């Protein structure tokens, strides 16, 4: 905050001289107001997750008796972890593994389809190219959840419902990624280099393999980030597609923990050792990986969203 | 371009085109077909139903309340979202520095929370006995979680959840847009006597309007599809909440509760149409997306 104050060169020096006192007074008031509002929202956004991190260290009684940000004990975390792993014959470990398989599967398949498509749209001219870009833009802006039930109808007709493919294949369709790849290749691929490679006898796949791919590192990072964060938390699609519990991913599994145990509903008759701490731990398994990725890649979100933006 | 080129271009986009038709356009078309099919013993009799599925779905006693619920949610969540995000982005951008960066990151992290985790967090946070905001909740006269998570509070609760998880991402995007405003414009306004607040409101805010429109329409399209939050909050059973609170839930109920996939498709199509209109509005109203990047 000291930094903040020292940077307040908002008015040019010539004017500043004459009205020094008034400007400083204004500055002080507006800085305080600004910082107070921003800090208030920091509590709104920050406190719930900080608090959630501490939940597994406490038992149900301690959650209401201790202060909100009090630390319980590490032993309690270990106990909660054992209880969670013991739930329904390793279900949680199974769900976590499924989550990884589905997320990585959609990612790899998605990249294998998305990169050539974006490249093709950017460098080649072919019949139907504009139509394909328009369809990409339209499907990319329609939220995925709008298509889930129709997708289920289609995939159960094809007898793919209740298989891992029902989650992996639709998630590998990544129109936003294709659009980003298209913009990326269209704006950053040196045209002369492509022409030179063609003159040297490279066919179109060779140009893509030897020139397009090696120049795609930033793009790959961005696409991986976007696909991973979207699919790790995927709930609606697997919830509708899967009905064998060994096929569930973590979000659907978390729902089982929330609705099928006494953790959140004390009237539910069961002697399973699943309490708030255990459910919170399962929730953290979903939140923490993404939160860590977010912490280090905020710029990806910004550059992703601003790609293609017209700058005057 | 040579013939070799044309075929290569098609090969590059072929796998994607297959996925686009299978999972982007196909489901919409298949839903359209299903909505005119009659279901007997779980097997579709195609083109046998006429408009009966539409009439059945739209005249169901739960249809209007579900549309009203989502309507109320939109009326609250859109203004709160836009005002909150634009306001915070402008406040942050008034002065660049470590403080702004740290705040921006704190606002951004909850984006990791989605679906079941968001509902889990809501059930914890709105419980006056364990919440980190428990003194505030108790001050407001609440004593158990069922007092807070009540049907009439749901639009506000979903708004808070959506803002908690979604605002940071939009703030980051708006911040990026604000950074691309030329310094000369801001300096000129400052010379003319604008203070930081006037600069934010009269100079910066109008310049990021295309992004505000983009956010508004995208949030609208997403919020109309509300499913996971009401579904989970009803299933968690902390309060008596309808399992057909939103239209998407009603569609789910038609499909899996009644086995009437035709009626489910009729609702899905209506929601899809709303989303599509939103999508086309974005493409028309903003200059954010480009079709011809290659030739510009």
**Element order, helices and strands of chain B?**
HEEHHHHHHHHHHHHH
Structure classification of chain A: mainly alpha
Number of domains of chain A: 2
State the shape of chain B. globular
| Overall pLDDT confidence of chain B | 87
- Output the CATH homologous superfamily of chain B: MetI-like
Number of beta strands of chain B: 2
The radius of gyration of chain A is 26 Å
Mean pLDDT of chain A: 84
Proportion of residues in extended strands of chain A: under 5%
Instruction: Write the CATH homologous superfamily of the largest domain in chain A.
Output: MetI-like
Number of strands of chain A: 0
Most strands sheet of chain A = none
Briefly summarize what is shown.
The complex is a heterodimer of chains A (312) and B (296). Chain A is an all-alpha fold. Chain A has helices at residues 2-6, 13-18, 20-54, 60-65, 74-85, 91-123, 129-141, 148-157, 165-172, 175-188, 191-199, 204-212, 217-232, 236-241, 250-259, 276-296, 298-306.
Explained architecture:
The complex is a heterodimer of chains A (312) and B (296). Chain A is mainly α. Chain A is 71% helix and 0% strand. In chain A, helix 6 (91-123) crosses helix 10 (175-188). The radius of gyration of chain A is 26 Å and the shape is globular. Residues 1-22 and 308-312 of chain A have low confidence and may be disordered. The model of chain B is unreliable at 1-5 (pLDDT under 50). Helix content of chain B is 71%, strand content 2%. Chain B is built from 14 helices and two strands; from the N terminus they run αββααααααααααααα. Chain B has a two-stranded antiparallel ribbon with strand order 1-2. The chains are: A mainly alpha (312), B mainly alpha (296). At the A-B interface, helix 3, helix 6, helix 7, helix 8 and helix 9 of A face helix 1, helix 3, helix 4, helix 5 and helix 8 of B.
């Amino acid at each position: 905050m000291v930094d903040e104050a020292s940077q307040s060169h908002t008015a040019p020096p010539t004017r500043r001289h004459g009205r020094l006192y008034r400007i400083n007074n204004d500055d002080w008031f507006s800085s305080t107001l600004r910082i107070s509002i921003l800090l208030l929202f920091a509590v709104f956004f920050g406190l719930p997750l900080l608090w959630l991190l501490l939940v597994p260290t406490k038992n149900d009684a301690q959650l209401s008796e201790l202060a909100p940000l009090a630390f319980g004990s590490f032993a309690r975390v270990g106990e909660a972890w054992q209880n969670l792993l013991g739930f329904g014959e390793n279900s949680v470990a199974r769900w976590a593994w499924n989550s990884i398989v589905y997320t990585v599967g959609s990612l790899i398949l998605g990249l294998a389809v998305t990169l050539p498509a974006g490249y093709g749209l950017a460098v080649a001219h072919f019949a139907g190219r504009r139509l394909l870009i328009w369809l990409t833009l339209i499907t990319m802006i329609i939220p995925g959840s709008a298509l889930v039930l129709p997708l289920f109808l289609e995939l159960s007709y094809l007898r793919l419902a209740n298989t891992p493919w029902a989650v992996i294949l639709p998630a590998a369709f990544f129109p936003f990624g294709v659009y980003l790849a298209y913009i990326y290749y269209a704006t950053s691929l040196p045209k002369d280099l492509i022409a030179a490679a063609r003159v040297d006898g490279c066919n179109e796949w060779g140009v893509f393999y030897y020139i397009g791919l090696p120049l795609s590192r930033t793009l790959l990072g961005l696409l991986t980030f976007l696909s991973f964060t979207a699919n790790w938390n995927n709930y609606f699609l697997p919830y509708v597609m899967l009905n064998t519990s060994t096929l569930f991913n973590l979000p659907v599994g978390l729902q089982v923990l929330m609705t099928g145990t006494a953790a959140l509903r004390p009237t539910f008759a069961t002697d399973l050792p699943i309490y708030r701490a255990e459910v919170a731990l399962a929730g953290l398994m979903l939140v923490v990986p993404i939160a860590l990725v977010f912490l280090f890649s905020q710029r990806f979100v910004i550059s992703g969203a601003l790609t293609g933006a017209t700058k005057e | 371009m040579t013939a070799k080129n044309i075929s290569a271009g098609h090969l590059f986009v072929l796998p994607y085109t297959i996925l686009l038709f299978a999972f982007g356009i196909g489901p919409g078309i298949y839903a359209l077909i299903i909505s005119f099919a009659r279901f007997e013993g779980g097997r579709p009799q195609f083109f046998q139903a006429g408009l009966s599925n539409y009439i059945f779905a739209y005249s169901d006693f739960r249809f209007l309340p579900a549309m009203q619920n989502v309507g109320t949610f939109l009326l609250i969540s859109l203004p709160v979202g836009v005002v909150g995000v634009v306001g915070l982005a402008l406040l942050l951008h008034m002065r660049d520095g470590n403080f702004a960066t740290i705040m921006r990151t704190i606002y951004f992290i909850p984006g990791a929370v989605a679906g079941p985790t968001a509902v889990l967090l809501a059930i914890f946070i709105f419980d006056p006995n364990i919440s980190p905001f428990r003194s505030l909740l108790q001050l407001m006269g609440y004593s158990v979680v069922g007092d807070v998570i009540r049907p009439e509070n749901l639009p506000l609760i979903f708004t808070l959840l959506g803002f908690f998880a979604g605002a940071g991402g939009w703030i980051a995007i708006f911040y990026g847009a604000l950074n691309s405003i030329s310094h000369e414009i801001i300096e000129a306004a400052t010379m003319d006597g604008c203070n930081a607040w006037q600069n934010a409101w009269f100079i910066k805010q109008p310049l990021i309007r295309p992004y505000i429109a983009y956010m508004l329409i995208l949030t609208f399209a997403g919020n109309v599809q509300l499913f996971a939050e009401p579904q989970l909050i009803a299933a968690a059973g902390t309060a008596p909440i309808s399992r057909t609170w939103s239209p998407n839930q009603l569609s789910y109920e038609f499909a899996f509760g009644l086995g009437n996939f035709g009626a489910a498709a009729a609702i899905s199509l209506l929601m899809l149409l709303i989303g599509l209109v939103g999508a086309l509005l974005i493409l028309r109203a903003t200059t954010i997306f480009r079709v011809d990047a290659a030739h510009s």
